[in-house]
């Protein structure tokens, strides 16, 4: 009886997919001397996940767990976020996108799929503008704000938000994090995301917002995107979907997430993972 029990346990432990792949945590140093933290797991075609404003790499945990079963998954803490160094400068989209390119080069990734959420969407456009996309398998933009011209109303609203951020960082972070979701999340989870967000120095957080909305023209980067692009978005981002369609044409695939919040890959992980899997399977080898 005991030997049979041991055999059953061994079968469970060795069954494929029972546990997620072991995640490795590591750092690399950028060309301007900043230590950038990243996690990686699995093997196969590389996928690089980049979080949005003030968010940590582990915000992608449900994607890391799923895709590391069949892919080489990397999630990065952008400079001043998560466990990465928090330098006083270097927070332009051009600099942060250079960090991502240096991560790709550091790991020797071939044709990675680059997945950027929110602020990282604009950073990936700047990636394409500076480095092209010849060594990119595909680009996935998740609910970011991109437009033909600056929106004066949005600029005014975010200016007030930046002031609030410096007056009461905890209150601002709590409100922002809770607004990212439309599906119920546990208090423990929300607290962990808020705690990660406020690790970014307040002045740096403000500069990141300003640098994001100060970009006047995305056309040069979009013109250099010669690989398939997926834009996953919720209804409030329809204007960005229309703008990207006008610029990218048949290179763009749109996936709308009704009833989900800004962090739609957390609100609806099964759907998001399925959409991403189908997109990756359709990419040229």
Question: Can you characterise this structure?
Answer:
- Strand 1 and strand 2 form a beta hairpin.
- The chain is of the alpha/beta class.
- The protein has an 8-stranded mixed beta sheet, with helices on both faces.
- The chain has helices spanning 2-14, 61-67, 93-107, 119-131, 152-167, 169-179, 187-197, 202-213, 219-223, 238-248, 264-267, 269-281, and strands at 24-29, 35-41, 46-50, 72-76, 113-117, 138-142, 229-233, 252-256.
Which residues sit in consecutive blocks of at least 5 with pLDDT less than 50?
1-20
Q: Strand-residue fraction?
A: 15-25%
Main beta-sheet strand count, sense and barrel state: 8 strands, mixed
CATH class label of the domain at 20-149 and 216-281: Alpha Beta
Q: Which class best fits the helix and strand makeup?
A: alpha/beta
Our count of helices gives 12
What gap, in angstroms, lies between the N and C termini? 50 Å
Radius of gyration: 19 Å
Question: What is the number of strand segments?
Answer: 8
The CATH topology of the domain at 20-149 and 216-281 turns out to be: Rossmann fold
Overall morphology? globular
For the residues shown, what is the average pLDDT?
Answer: 91
